[in-house]
From TrEMBL, chains A, B:
Gene: dhaK
Name this protein carries in UniProt: Dihydroxyacetone kinase subunit DhaK
Lineage, uppermost ranks: Bacteria, Bacillati, Actinomycetota, Actinomycetes, Kitasatosporales
Gene Ontology MF annotations: phosphoenolpyruvate-glycerone phosphotransferase activity
Pfam families tied to this protein: Dak1
Enzyme's top EC category: transferase
UniProt-listed Enzyme Commission number(s): 2.7.1.121
Keyword terms, alphabetized: Kinase, Transferase
Length: 330, 330
């Protein structure tokens, strides 16, 4: 146990208290576990609500703010939030223009957001849903039927969030979110397992000197396990997996994401290799983001997400965003 | 070895190539190892140049941009950059208004920046220097005579950078930098050792279940080693160490910093405890920053830095900043 915690039972509540103290621009309901941008509901604006298990920070709470999510619902570590949280979030942020639920494709999240959508609609809130399933590594996995939702979530939340901020109506925000998910693909690699507070030991067995190619963000198995590879070899493997599936015809935005335990120095070096492979494959890169955005607690490793963009999606990506983890423009 | 690298020899160059690709707003000279904001020199503006060993990212390269550093010189991992880099950086950014060197108090950095200052002055560049020595853990340590420079560097670079951006002359920027360092104190805690690429194994021996109280950002020994403590106990120890030394009479800005390997979920939880202790000690908190800013590669752990601010320093802290790692306002 090398964790900076009190007891496993209070990890999420403690983090929310700490988040509230650091970010007065957010309203954090620690007891009910809802993070909301302070000025919500914003008159006439479609609201975006997401959520999922904790342990992937800054996803989703760190993406709440003008230009991105309107609210986030954190569950227990690696555990879906409950419908009650989602309904409360929807009620807190709905201006009458409707709410888009952004749902990563894990069975628990899908079921709970579905139930929440029904309950919210019973309360007179118009709800649309978009499922994020960008991970090309495997189809059907631990916790998932179909593909898993990982790094593509950041693109969906940023780009659809920008459309909502501009005043697009619900069906348009939903359509943009679907388009972004449809043009996003991810592939993750673990150099170590992660340790959940409740378990206190690594969640899966990955001997030193081996890596898991195609790992999920909860340590779910990927495509194969191999002896340690270089940054260059990992980039070849991961980028090829993404590009072969996405088959981009135009420019992409690249997210070179750390799983939590890999230093930024290494992530930047890995980005150099990712850019090299993209260049060799003839894929133009419009924007690049490097850092820890969709993490797996202290897992060492990385993921690559590409989102193919047209002029509109790139403009929405560049639009101002003011959240704890992503902020630019104004 | 769970590192995302090619070979240890190219880690810094690889990272700089990846940084260049991700940040077109910076000019990155990979060969000469200088990171410069693209629009430098800025007419009439005092330039801020810092640098130090790599492995502490985003420090310093991630702090280059409008409102903060004008240039950064990364050395090898945990190794001072050489005077030649610093002179090149100074020459690249000097507008004629002079250059402030921000130097963390490690023997190698201090000597090299001193030599660079002499060389730059020989080239007709006006140079001032500020030494950052905010770490209260120990006096005289591995690599250091006096106190070590750690998290306070972020405050010096941000606040003096804002003054320079506003057009303050060199002696005023230098005076503000000294004032910030004089009002900043830090204390760090390691829950694990870090692993440098060159060594490939932990840099010091910290058995699981023990922590190092007062650790330096290169894993230098601290005040004492103890059996694992809770987040609450660690906050009590670290904040008290800082507050007893700083004796703040007014509000502070709090940096709750991750060493690299500790998840953001845990850092936010730790922040809740830090805020609790500060409340109990009667120290008002004006602003709080939580995240990985001054790291030690993959070390698990955290540090607390407090900077006591008056109205002017707080205004300069809030002033716009546009760097890879720190950005707000406009």
């Amino acid at each position: 146990m090398r964790m900076l915690i009190n007891v496993p039972e209070t990890v999420v509540a403690d983090a929310l208290r700490g988040m509230a103290a650091a970010h007065p621009e957010l309203t954090v309901d620690v007891e009910r576990r809802v993070v909301v941008r302070r000025d919500a509901p914003v008159a006439g604006k479609v609201a975006l609500v997401s959520g999922g298990g904790s342990g992937h920070e800054p996803l989703h709470g760190g993406f709440v703010g003008p230009g991105m999510l309107t609210a986030a619902c954190p569950g227990e570590v690696f555990t879906s939030p409950v419908p009650d949280q989602m309904v409360r979030a929807a009620a807190a942020v709905d201006s009458g223009a409707g709410v888009l639920f952004v749902v990563k494709n894990y069975t628990g999240d899908v079921l709970n957001f579905e139930m929440a959508a029904e309950l919210a609609e019973d309360e007179g809130i118009q709800v649309a849903k978009v499922l994020v399933d960008d991970d090309v590594a495997v189809t059907d996995s631990l916790y998932t039927a179909g593909r898993r939702g990982t790094g593509g979530t950041l693109f969906v939340e940023k780009i659809a969030g920008a459309a909502a901020e501009e005043g697009a109506p619900l069906e348009r925000v939903e359509a943009i979110a679907r388009r972004v998910n449809g043009r996003s693909r991810s592939f993750g690699v673990a150099l170590s397992a992660c340790t959940t507070p409740a378990k206190g030991s690594p969640t899966f067995d990955l001997p030193p000197g081996e890596l898991e190619l195609g790992v999920g963000i909860h340590g779910e198995p990927g495509r194969e396990r191999r002896a340690m590879m270089t940054s260059r070899e990992i980039a070849d493997y991961a980028v090829d997996a993404v590009v072969e599936d996405l088959e981009p015809a135009g420019p992409v935005i690249a997210l070179v994401n750390g799983m939590g335990g890999t230093p930024l120095l290494e992530l930047y070096g890995f980005n150099a290799e990712v850019q090299r492979v993209l260049g060799e494959r003839g894929v133009p890169v419009a924007r690049t983001l490097v850092g820890n955005y969709v993490t797996s607690l202290d897992m060492a490793g990385c993921s690559v997400t590409l989102c193919e963009v047209d002029e509109e999606l790139l403009r929405l990506w560049d639009a101002p965003v003011q959240t704890p983890a992503l902020r630019w423009g104004r």
